[in-house]
Amino acid sequence: MSDQILTLKEVADYLKLAEKTAYRLAAEGKLPGFKVGGSWRFKCQDVEAWIEQQKSKNNGAPQ
User: Fold this and answer.
1) What gap in Å lies between CA 31 and CA 47, rounded to an integer?
2) Domain residues for 49?
3) 33: pLDDT strictly greater than 90
């Protein structure tokens, strides 16, 4: 599954986000993605690496 390419809707579903939120994160460069013909696409492997990066960032945050 690591070579799989996800659409904006699929990545939003995967991350349990609204499509609008996923779009905003991608447009701001916070979520790793790329555009193909004006539509956002995401490599599953990149999204999973991003999740791990977010987890390690948040491990040091006070709760």
Assistant:
1) 7
2) 5-59
3) yes
